[in-house]
């Protein structure tokens, strides 16, 4: 018998209503079959048709803004200002991917005409990227709008021309259903076939979705343990498929001795503001801060401790995160030195997540490399720059690294050269919590930060859900419009030369 899907008020822990029932294996099979059945029709909408669908979805979400934000706030306790910004981001990235479709360079359209080469005659070859097929997307707990049902994975998959089956996150099921209903109605009104977006619920449904033969790729944002289990499922299929998972990162922040001497209070306060933003429930939270020994580092530590003492506790997204955070804090208390801890909001408020600041030495950093998801960070003191570089080279893969340096700091270039080998994004004199949706963004990194070299944020996220195909000596009428002779409609490389529309 299917289990009910219940919406929970994150602030009170009380149920607020039944959203539906968990999806059965038959439900998942039907969703996969439906997605496969409409894939060709959705691809046939071409770039302009899919751009119209994406813009219609963005408009629909904007029109239902007040209800969506209210539901998301009730289920996440993230606050209406934060969630309003998140909905703005969601609509923006949908429209940005519509712009990507209009521009067309993502197709990597390439033409090599038949002719003589130093190796002999060459046939006519034409190549571009095409949709990979139906995609499974897993909603994330910490971003109920921007990384969930209508989030970046869904937007980029739809832009690529792939139908999407979304697995709703149990932390915000009512929000998921409301957003999905707005998406489905908008997609249909813009000419998309029924079934191009679908929604399932439940842990078992998620596993069944990854192994469903109709699914050709998976987008996931979540825990290392959960992501690894699904990654292994995707790889163990008779026909293994790509699993694009964003999993775990401690996001090291490094302060040079010169920067610590110049602005210790500013960096210390900024570090805590970043580490506690959103109750520390950001995948880019700086979980390790490497700061020098000496007066500058001491002043930075003290400023960070003072800043933390003024931070109120926050409400966790769900009890699982709260329990995991408590376990993580216990592990840190047994491993490193507690510097400061925020006070609880009330004596009986056991679910509040309190910020904590810890300190250790460079020699003992191996014990604090596991992510602690919540409002905490660990200061790692170093007194030897070469030893620090050696330690940084051995870090596991990370989403981000941050460097705080002074102008013309001779140590900064060495840090950049070291850190860029273990991360996907290097931030200078700033903080990593904040991932812009743009053409140049890279949100990903070596394992265990992600399971691929691709980004899950920004325009090149579309590349995950495309595959290349080449046509050899094909007649013009069977070629995609972007590869036919005649007017150039998208940037393309012809016989080795880049040709732009209008040229």
Describe the structure.
With 503 residues, the protein is of the alpha/beta class. It is built from 14 helices and 21 strands. The chain has helices spanning 25-43, 46-63, 65-76, 80-103, 152-160, 173-189, 203-211, 224-236, 257-262, 264-276, 295-309, 319-335, 385-393, 410-419, and strands at 4-8, 15-21, 109-112, 115-117, 120-122, 125-131, 135-138, 164-167, 197-200, 217-221, 243-246, 253-255, 288-292, 337-341, 356-361, 376-382, 398-404, 423-428, 466-472, 492-494, 497-499. A seven-stranded mixed sheet has the order 14-15-16-13-12-17-18, with helices on both faces. Strands 19-6-3-20-21 form a five-stranded mixed sheet, with no helix packed on it. Helix 8 links the parallel strand 10 (217-221) and strand 11. Helix 3 (65-76) packs across helix 4 and helix 13 packs parallel to helix 14 (410-419). The longest helix has 24 residues, at 80-103. The radius of gyration is 24 Å and the shape is globular. The termini are far apart. The mean pLDDT is 96.
């Amino acid at each position: 018998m299917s289990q009910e899907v219940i919406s929970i008020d994150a602030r009170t822990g009380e149920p607020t209503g039944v959203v539906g029932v968990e999806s059965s294996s038959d439900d998942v099979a039907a969703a996969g079959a439906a997605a496969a059945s409409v894939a060709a029709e959705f691809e046939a909408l071409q770039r302009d048709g899919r751009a119209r669908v994406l813009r219609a979805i963005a408009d629909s979400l904007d029109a239902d803004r007040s209800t969506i934000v209210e539901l998301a706030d009730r289920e996440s306790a993230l606050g209406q200002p934060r969630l309003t910004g998140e909905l703005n981001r969601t609509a923006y990235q949908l429209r940005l991917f519509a712009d990507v479709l209009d521009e067309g360079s993502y197709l990597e359209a390439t033409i090599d005409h038949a002719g003589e080469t130093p190796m002999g005659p060459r046939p006519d070859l034409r190549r571009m990227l095409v949709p990979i097929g139906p995609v499974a997307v897993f909603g994330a707990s910490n971003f109920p709008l921007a990384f969930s049902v209508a989030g970046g994975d869904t937007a980029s998959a739809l832009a690529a021309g792939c139908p999407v089956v979304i697995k709703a996150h149990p932390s915000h099921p009512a929000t998921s259903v409301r957003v999905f209903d707005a998406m489905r109605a908008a997609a249909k009104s813009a000419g998309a076939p029924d079934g191009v977006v679908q929604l399932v619920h439940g842990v078992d449904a998620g596993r069944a979705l990854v192994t469903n033969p109709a699914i050709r790729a998976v987008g996931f944002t979540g825990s290392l343990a959960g992501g690894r289990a699904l990654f292994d499922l995707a790889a163990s299929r008779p026909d293994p498929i790509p699993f694009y998972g964003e999993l775990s990162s401690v996001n090291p922040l490094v302060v040079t001795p010169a920067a610590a001497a110049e602005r210790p209070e500013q960096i210390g306060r900024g570090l805590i503001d970043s580490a506690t933003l959103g109750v520390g429930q950001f995948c880019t939270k700086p979980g390790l801060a490497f700061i020098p020994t000496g007066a500058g580092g001491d002043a930075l530590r003290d400023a960070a401790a003072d800043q933390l003492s003024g931070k109120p506790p926050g409400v966790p997204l769900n009890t699982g995160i709260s329990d995991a955070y408590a376990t993580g804090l216990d592990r840190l208390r047994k491993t490193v030195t507690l510097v400061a801890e925020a006070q609880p909001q009330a004596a009986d408020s056991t679910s509040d997540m309190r910020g904590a600041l810890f300190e250790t030495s460079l020699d003992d950093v191996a014990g604090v490399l596991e992510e602690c998801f919540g409002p905490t960070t660990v200061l790692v003191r170093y007194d030897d720059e070469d030893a620090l570089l050696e330690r940084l080279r051995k870090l596991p893969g990370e989403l981000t690294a941050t460097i705080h340096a002074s102008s013309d700091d001779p140590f900064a270039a060495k840090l950049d050269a070291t850190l860029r080998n273990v991360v996907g994004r290097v931030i200078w004199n700033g903080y990593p919590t904040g991932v812009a949706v743009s053409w140049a963004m890279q949100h990903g990194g070596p394992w265990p930060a992600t399971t691929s070299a691709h980004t899950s944020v920004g325009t090149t996220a579309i590349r995950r859900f495309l595959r290349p195909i080449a046509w050899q000596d094909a007649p013009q009428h069977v070629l995609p419009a972007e590869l036919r002779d005649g007017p150039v409609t998208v940037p393309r490389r012809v016989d080795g030369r880049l040709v732009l529309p209008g040229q």
